[in-house]
Amino acid sequence: MNQFVSLWIGFRFYVARQSNRFISFISFASTAGIALGVAVLIVVLSAMNGFEQQLQQRLLGIVAQGELTGVEAPLENWQKIVASAQKIKGIEAAAPFITMQGLVQRQGGFHGLTVFGIDPALEAKVSTLPEFVKPDVWQALEQAEKNNILLGASLAKKFNLQIGDKLSLFTPAHKSKGLAKPKSHQFVIAGFYDVGGEIEQTTAYISLAHASNLLDMQDNVSGVRIKVDNVFDAPRLIRELGYSQQQYMYISDWTRTQGHLYQDIQLVRMIMYIVLALVIAVACFNIVSTLVMAVRDKESEIAILMTMGMKRASIMMIFMVQGAFNGLLGCGLGGLIGTLVAANLSAIAKGIESIFGVQLLSGDIYFIDFLPSQLQLTDVVAVIGLAFVMSLIATIYPAWKASHTAPARALAGGS
Predict the structure, then answer these.
(1) What is the CA radius of gyration of the chain?
(2) Phi, then psi, of 322 in degrees rounded to 5
(3) What does the alpha-carbon distance between residue 270 and residue 268 come to, in Å, rounded to a whole number?
(4) For residue 236, is pLDDT > 70?
């Protein structure tokens, strides 16, 4: 029964704080601070989740999650490697590729470009590239007899290239003595892919058969791409596959080439979580000030309750409940606002860009050109839970002081 009485009196004290404007203002400030911290933390975590999701879907969907390449010579009998990959649990698919590196020349000057020869049917199993290309353009790569090439949209914009334009790729000619004139390869632009980031500036695609003819590779390839079920298992699975082969080859995975992006996302997530958790802690400990002043304001009422037989634990519970209402209201408002903003963060960012004429993320610099967001219920629960626990901790000292009020001195008007 005492618990229910303490809960009811604590609620009455919380409502009655409006009679003291200064206490009411400090209480409002602590509630608003908690709400703001909770909302911002939910939004930031959702944005970090969005970046991580886009990293996996876009960048890691196109670049090789795992890769086996020849050391001193092209890989022979790539079909055997693909068959071996399919036998390893955790590896989803494998596809061959041939790589060419050279320079393209336009009016803007020379530009380095890596051209991958791919088998469109097998590449679709290891890459999400077809999702960013029109179906007819992807089918154009399957025409081995044609010299079609697929370019990044930002590279095409840089050089003002259109579908159907011709593009020359200059590659070094291997010669044992003296200088040799570079080889020139002509391609016809079949279309563009648009995924954002540096990859659009440096990577192009042609058919595997055409690349083999250009480099006289016959049935050999430069390497084999690997796609895994879980990207974090890639290092282990790629090594397991590579060590089972007889030919010397380089073993690589996405953590070597793109791992810094993932580490950056995790580092920013951790730093922002700590910083904003401290902001929430500061807001929560404003509750200490609120309750200390409330205790001084309610000393006579506390004394009356104690003379009527209420135990110190119940007195302590009254003020913990009063502080908990501040935390609960702040957590609820912050959770609601943060959830609404996080769920519509991409649309809000686009609206800001259109209103102010700015671009928050440039596709030429980052691997995406929009602000992503992925709201997760676990993040919302964790943030609200953390804030509420902090607010409860902040109530302990003032509530303890209230329970040790001397009734006689309080009723006599002493300090």
Answers:
(1) 32
(2) -60, -45
(3) 5
(4) yes
Average pLDDT of the residues in 271-278: 86
The pTM is what? 0.75
Residues in contact with 403: Cβ distance below 8 Å, sequence separation at least 6, in sequence order = 312, 313, 315, 316
The pairing of beta strand 109-118 with beta strand 183-193: unpaired
Find out whether 186 and 147 touch, Cβ atoms under 8 Å: yes
Question: Tokens 């860009």 map to which residue?
Answer: 353
Q: Is residue 220 within 8 Å of residue 78, measured between CB atoms?
A: yes
Task: Give the tens place of pLDDT for each residue, 170-209.
Answer: 888 765 555 667 788 889 999 999 887 778 888 999 999 8
Q: How many alpha carbons fall within 13 Å on the CB side of residue 365?
A: 5
In contact, 394 and 287? CB cutoff 8 Å: yes
Give every CB contact of residue 124 below 8 A, 6+ residues apart in sequence.
130, 138
Strand partners, 220: none
Please state, in angstroms and rounded to a whole number, the distance separating the CA atoms of residues 222 and 242: 15
Give the three-class secondary structure for 175.
coil
Model confidence at 19, in pLDDT bands (50, 70, 90)? low
Quick one: pLDDT band at residue 98, thresholds 50, 70, 90? Answer: very high
Q: Which residues of 263-279 are buried (b: 16+ CB within 10 A; e: fewer)?
A: eebeeebeebbeebbeb
Q: Kindly list the distances between the CA atom of residue 246 and the CA atoms of 218, 242, 389, in Å, as whole numbers in the listed order.
A: 20, 9, 58
Placement of tokens 């079920």 in the chain:
229
Phi first, then psi, for residue 367 (nearest 5°) are -80, 0
- Torsion region of 77: left, alpha or beta (phi above 0 gives left; psi -120 to 50 gives alpha): left
- Tokens for 334? 């912050």
For residue 75, the 8-state DSSP code is B
Residue 232: helix, strand or coil by DSSP?
A: helix
- Residues paired with 150 in a beta bridge: 191, 205
